[in-house]
């Protein structure tokens, strides 16, 4: 039976954006609340070179915080033609545990539902920039022996897998904020990848996410803070302490205890992020 013990099982928040302005006023309190909830490690994710530098600064400031360095697909249009040298330099920091987040996002293409308007030619340019940015980050990851945090949104799973396959065996991938089906997760496992789950696992309409979480042999948990706060905080600012609610929902979906889920997700995180102390 699941319960909230005085000494809660340990979990990690493997994906949060701690450099967000939403957290500027209370970062020390945020880290303390996470620790009180049993969240002992937080990975702050870079979305461009400046964001990656800020993530590293936070990792230097807080013992529980680590960093990932990367360039988000939604920001790829502003990326230099070649940023591999700068990214490689950042990623050699001892507390940088992965490259990312990187990937493809067709939901926010200019003509798509989440876009701001444009033409088919604008879509093609955006896709090309996203693919080039992902390719560069995969190359850096392979050279440094790091794994990649993948963002995949919109109808782009096939294109994402096609770009990742040549690196299978050299780089592992985690599809963060996974909302796909168990069959899609199985395809990701087929190239040596895995998936990670957010507060969507607690949503009333999150049946598919819970089904995928129940079926995975390996998985990780994350908040994507400040976004996607789980129930009962939905609609409010998310923070790493809320991994506790996500873990409860995933454990219920899997029919296991929080202690069992803690052991699985922490072991998966240490295997995927070898630099995670």
3D architecture notes:
The protein is α/β, with parallel strands linked by helices. The protein has a single domain (11-272), classed as Metal-dependent hydrolases (TIM Barrel), CATH 3.20.20. The chain contains nine helices and eight strands. It has helices at residues 27-36, 49-61, 84-91, 120-144, 157-164, 182-189, 207-215, 243-254, 258-272; strands at 11-16, 39-45, 65-69, 96-105, 148-153, 173-175, 194-197, 219-221. The relative contact order is 0.15. Mean pLDDT is 95; it is low at 1-5.
Feature tags:
TIM Barrel; 9 helices; alpha/beta; 277 residues
Question: Mean pLDDT across all residues, rounded?
Answer: 95
Q: What is the count of structural domains?
A: 1
Q: Which CATH-level-2 architecture?
A: Alpha-Beta Barrel
Q: Strand order, biggest sheet? A: 1-2-3-4-5-6-7-8
CATH fold-level assignment: TIM Barrel
The 3D shape can be described as globular
Number of strands: 8
CATH class reads Alpha Beta
